[in-house]
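WARN no homologs supplied; continuing
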Amino acid sequence: MMLSKVLTQLLAEFLGTFFFILTIPLTYHGVGLLSPLPIGMMLSALCFALRYISGAHFNPAITFAVFIIREISSVRFIAYILVQILAGLMAAIYLSLIREPAIYLMEMNSDILIIWRLAFWEFVYVFSLTCTVLHASHSEQKVNDFYGISIGMSFISAAFTSPAQFITFLNPAGIIGATLLDWFEGNPVDFRFFFVSLIAPMGGAFTGSIFYQILDTENHDRRRSPNHIRMVY
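OK structure emitted
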C-alpha cells in the first residue's frame, strides 16, 4: 500500500517519537544512571533511519525551531506537533501496560525552587540540542554522515547532567503524553509542571533557532539572494 508523501512523513514522525519517548523511562528503570547511553543511541539510530523521510524531529521543540527558521510550513508544523503528542500518549499507554505507570512520570519535589531549577536546565539543554540539530541537518553541511551521531551525543551529554531524581525527556511530547494519560484515567494532574514540560523547552528551541540564524551566515546570505527560492511543503 502506497501512502502520500505527507502521510509518510507523519507516520515516520509518529514512529520515531514513539520509540524515542518509550525508550527513556524503560532504560531509566533498567539501567538507572547509565540510561542516557541507550537513549542517545536510540535517538541516533532513529535519526539515521528516518531523517530522509520526515526530517527526524521527534520533538515538538525541534519542530518549533525548524518552523522558526522557515524550513517547514505552518500546516506541516501543526501536523507534526499533533502527531508527536499522539506518539507520546501512545508511549505512555504502552508503558502503563508493561510497567508500573509511576516510573513514566518525574517524581518531583513540591518545592517551587526545584521546579525553577529544572526549568532552567530544560531551557539550556534544549537550546543546545536545537543548535546541534539545526547545524547538523539544516545548514550548508546538512549533507553529511555524522548528523545522527552528533544529535545522539548531544542528548547523551545533556541527559548525564540531569538531576538524578528526574527522568530526562527534553521533549514536551513525553510529559504531555503522560499527563494526558493521567487526565484520561481520572488521576490528579499537577499543572505546575506545565512551565517545565512545555514553556521551558519551547523557549530553549526558540532561542536556539535565533542563534542558529545569527551564526549560519551562509544560509543568511543565500536567503537574501534574489535567485534563491525556498521550497516549503
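DSSP finds nine helices and no strands in the chain.
OK
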